Amino acid sequence: MAPSLQHAEDFLSFVNASPTPFHAVKSSIDKLEKAGFVQIKERDAWSSTLKPGGKYYLTRNTSSLVAFAIGKQWKHGNPIGMIGAHTDSPCLRIKPVSKRQADGFLQVGVETYGGGIWHTWFDRDLGIAGRVLVKTSDGQFEQKLVKVDRPILRVPTLAIHLERTQDFSFNKETQLFPIAGLVAAELNRQGKSENEITEKTSEEEPFEPLKTPSERHHPYIVEIIAEHAGVSPSEVQDFEMVLYDTQKSVIGGLNNELIFSARLDNLMMSYCSVEGIIKSLTSPSTLDNDPTVRLIGLFDHEEIGSQTAQGADSNLLPAVIRRLSALPPTENNSDKSYERVEVDAATGFEQTLATSFLISADMAHSIHPNYAIKYESSHRPELNKGTVIKINANARYATNSPGIVLLQEVARRARKASTNVNKSSESTGVPLQLFVVRNDSSCGSTIGPMLAAKMGARTLDLGNPQLSMHSIRETGGAHDVEHAVNLFESFFEHFGELESKILID
């Protein structure tokens, strides 16, 4: 019996609203706040804010997010069940000075972000999205999110009549230039002729250390960004904008069994992480007897190595765990179900890491029917057959046998709603798959090994299977969304019980 499409359809809404890491974090926050999570900030003290049974979230750079729920039986040195994913995907980003013009065309300079399959970006309807920093009337600076949901850019291919080589190749610096329109049309919009040139003198405007955004970019693009931010162009101080495919993500396939979408890697795992922790907290009494903290971390910049302040290789996750471990003892809460036990505060952080477990959730490779030879013969994950455990002998993934055993137990206990409308009962268990690469093939990596090395916590790498990873348009299984959500929900519910049963010192 196939799972329902409810989670798949909800995921489509999530990914369609999230063309950038900033938007992905905002979409996640909307879900978390609806489920009762409260915002906290790194710059504030937590000792008087965090309470047993509380649900909280924080952001860094508004492109990375950590959310957690504190069990009422949590104490210094107790375990934290963690799921880590990432919010970024390969894309084209508008350069700091992007204004280009050639042969009657307006063009926009872009730089490549991550390891994208860049030829897939040709001949697509591209919009722009990101964040803009604006100056308010009281002299403050604030961030606003912008999503221009219409095609204004396009990277055109060269006609086959002019280039008949068998292989499509191009120069990323000189031939990956999007066109934004025609010079004549823009001059007509402004009511100017091609001979009209407006010179700007130093007396006209106050001194600026840099050229203004309207000088560095096509003015009309700045106007469009300002309009979507709800401000005037003069209030725009700077922005970080990327290109994205305006074609919506959809459910496809003959039997609605597939998802055709941008950014499956890794917004599907980000979505499933958020949904998993929320579903695990549905019952008001869930945290009453829980000795753990349930935590998700969604990190930016995985596609470029994670070595940034908001990347997984930063101090973000260790700092959150250290602050949780350093919370002072508190009195029993009103229902007397919680009691903070005193331990050596100097080692609480290390004790917690030694008992904790991290699931590194990043999308995996499905078997490709046209390139089956590229896959190891006994490890060929299929779409809609369950989440994939990723293994690599050279530690490109952090998975080992104790982690596999723990995840199997979690999967056995996962709830899976029956699709038979005549039955109200639930079947149990969600499927899992295994993946290793061929010995003669390179292997990607994830945030798993770096966080395992940084924290010393037990770690396992997994992800839902997909095709066309790093393409502008990827393919996944519609039913695997629910598989992963139910797996993550079960992990949070049962980790506290299972972790001590599968502990290898």
From TrEMBL:
Species the sequence originates in: Phyllosticta citribraziliensis
UniProt xrefs under NCBIfam families: PRK02813.1 (NF002759)
Listed Pfam families: Peptidase_M18 (PF02127)
Enzyme class: hydrolase
Domain of life (superkingdom): Eukaryota
Cross-referenced Gene3D superfamilies: Aminopeptidase i, Domain 2, Zn peptidases
Keywords: Aminopeptidase, Hydrolase, Metal-binding, Metalloprotease, Protease, Zinc
Chain ranges passing through the membrane: none
Protein name (record): aspartyl aminopeptidase
